[in-house]
Amino acid sequence: MITSKLPQTETSIFSVMSQLAKEHGAVNLSQGFPDFESDPYLIELVSHAMKDGYNQYAPMAGDTDLLKEISKKYQLLYKKAYAPNSEITITAGATQAIFTAITAVVNKGEEVIIFTPAYDCYAPSIKLMGGNIVPVQLQAPAYKPDWNLVAKKITERTKMIIVNSPHNPSGMLFSEDDMLQLEALAVRHDLIVLSDEVYEHIIFDGNIHQSAARFPKLSQRTFITASFGKTFHNTGWKVGYCVAPQALMREFQKVHQFNVFSVNHPVQKALATYMKDPDHYLGLSSFYQKKRDFFINELKDARFKIVPSHGTYFQLLDFSKISTENDVAFAERLTKQYQVATIPTSVFNANNEDYKQIRVCFAKNETTLKKGAAILKTL
């Protein structure tokens, strides 16, 4: 007989809502993937890499050229030097990087603090390692962390704090002060930090990404995870990476080599060439801010309460003036009755706290956004 290690875990809400969207022919604003193509030049680079013979295993840590380009990026943006040969690893997407970092350092009975609403891969990964999840609920509509509350949650068993900025699903950004307070707590209590920064290049209204790499004492105890799929519109390629100081990366790679070993080689070669031009990621905030503004403008006559997203390609919509239903029921009804799919946010909260909000993805072409908004305005 099998005893499940994750007995309460069901199919992810992203898969559920996308399947529901397919069944009902709905406009899919739920799962976070673009409905437009990646740069044809990047696709061509992958083809060239295949034709040039990069079709066998890449080095375990990653293609040397790509590791060097990532190192250059951190130096350019955050004035932080990560050694390509010992402090960077290419992963099969950011989710694998997150799982590997947790697996590498969290032991049975140790506690991990997460901020809820939280991306749904954090908690299962902690549970699989026998760790205990300690949630800190962020309050709508600001979703700003209460560091006094965080401090009270820290015990002698606390091993790690997981942070995510820009934050999915709220679009909130950690400020410089937030990161300094995180740094102080991590140093004082000798904690490891996992900083999920997959949306680092999607930040709006002139704000600056406060990467953990910017803070010297914090970066020395932090795994930073990132995603090429989110950055370059190709989530199906499943390529990401992790950067961390050498001592942490050594433990990370001990796990990585046995659950993945190495990642798609021709894609790595293509990304190494593509990243030589920083404009390919530096222009992303402007690109997505136009989409955010277009979508919000399309909803200007709707009954939703909207606080514009500060980052990511997600927007929360408060439907409390429209319905008293719980958000899961509301999202299901939207899909089945109105043919537009969204994500209910209570599934990411501690105790499924319901703020009457749904999450929509605006990483779509204008036709899709206009069609989705037209439906939402009828509510």
From TrEMBL:
CDD domains: AAT_like (cd00609). GO terms for cellular component: cytoplasm. Pfam families: Aminotran_1_2. It comes from the Bacteria. Residues 27-373 form the Aminotransferase class I/classII large domain. Keywords: Aminotransferase, Pyridoxal phosphate, Transferase. The keyword Transferase applies. GO terms for molecular function: kynurenine-oxoglutarate transaminase activity; pyridoxal phosphate binding. The keyword Transferase applies. InterPro entries: Aminotransferase_I/II_large, Kynurenine-oxoglutarate_AT, PyrdxlP-dep_Trfase, PyrdxlP-dep_Trfase_major, PyrdxlP-dep_Trfase_small. Its cofactor is pyridoxal 5'-phosphate. Belongs to the class-I pyridoxal-phosphate-dependent aminotransferase family. This is Aminotransferase. It comes from Cochleicola gelatinilyticus.
